[in-house]
């Protein structure tokens, strides 16, 4: 007798999530859209009030990913212990399936600059970032996924490529990677790198999440630059790169981010469906 | 090679103080000039923080206009950048900054509108507090009462102003009757801000209750707060004022100050 187990194994569908921003919260609570999971910026829920309570309600229905933007893993000054404690409290409260941060810095001289600023990729930076990731993973008692940033400049004294830097962080700290496909595309375009070669150089087994988002193009003084603004749909060449990422990394949970000029929730959900379809086609093509 | 600490301090200065001279030589050449590349980060920093301030101070923005607000915010961010990554906590100094900001001196009430909006924001983002039952104080010996320091709900805030801030606030809301004229000499206000469930509310207090509650908020003992309140109102009813605090559910804890001069 033919049993389910005897058939060709049915691969698990890819789990696609969307970023969850304040203006969509009520609608998500009321309509409970079909979406694999949701990701929030950790810093938005470190205070009190209705937001964190609504997030608790949402957490009852959806797996959650905590995406930090303020830990400043790249700072030479060491982590802000108070901020780390607040992140820990948040993780205890919401039990997220994933916790992620960025390969960037935002704190210098005790000032928080609210942007994901670029690092020189040197041995010294590697030591500093690895020490900070170790401290964070120790304090939080779990693995962090570290995201590649969108970059608009590189430092003259960098001696290590970004994928090699990430690879080295993975081997030194045991962290995972959040591979932001749009950021690779933006960085590669701005700094004259090969996006596919970048993707190929990442340690595939460490990639625990993928990000997709929109970008825009600006022209200044005759030069054209891509800006990772999370304000539009995912661009066509980023979809190509995403399919490549899925073929290379397998069906990794994927998130569609949209932060500025927030569209109606249905548009965001449509982008998530597009991601799921693109991923399934990429997997099918790879299997064929 | 510049140490990482120095590289980051150099970039911080380039972004906040618009002094790129130290950073430009550190940047590898690309199609776009280093200045253009730095400007993208600088714009990210200022634009995102201006948005934070605009969200916290919408009425200040409405009273001055978008362009002036962006200018004031830019100056403020450069001088008083955030020190923590939780940005609902950024902007507590904006009112003081506006008070000393020469271009807005012709709007003498603007700083108090900013103080009011800051209190609204603090209330909206305050952690949920559990009210203390009056019975919690029952076990205290009567002689300890003067040394009692009541902890008030973190959402609670107080604003005293010589300007009619509540009327300015209401009259300038979107959709309010724009033809209504506010008499700036109508007298000042003593306002209390709080949050009921999810709604931030405010109300006018009489000067004695305001003085009493504000003194407690600042950490005064019951005795010190009472002395201060009697100075503004000899008829102050202490028992009723304490009962009202519990009735309003704004007492969340207490400590006893150390006995003095024993």
Could you please describe the fold and organization of this structure?
The complex is a heterodimer of chains A (288) and B (262). Chain A has a single domain (16-287), classed as Alpha-Beta Barrel (TIM Barrel). Chain A is 40% helix and 19% strand. Chain A has helices at residues 25-31, 50-59, 81-94, 123-140, 162-173, 181-191, 195-201, 236-249, 265-287; strands at residues 16-19, 37-41, 64-67, 98-102, 105-108, 111-117, 145-147, 176-180, 207-212, 216-220, 223-227, 254-256. The longest helix of chain A is centred in the C-terminal third of the chain and has 23 residues, at 265-287. Chain B has helices at residues 4-16, 34-56, 58-64, 66-79, 94-99, 110-125, 165-171, 207-217, 222-232, 238-247; strands at residues 148-152, 157-161, 189-196, 199-204, 251-256. Chain B has a three-stranded antiparallel β-sheet with strand order 2-3-4, sandwiched between helices. Chain B is globular. Classes of the chains: A alpha/beta (288), B alpha+beta (262). The interface between A and B is large, with 53 and 49 residues.
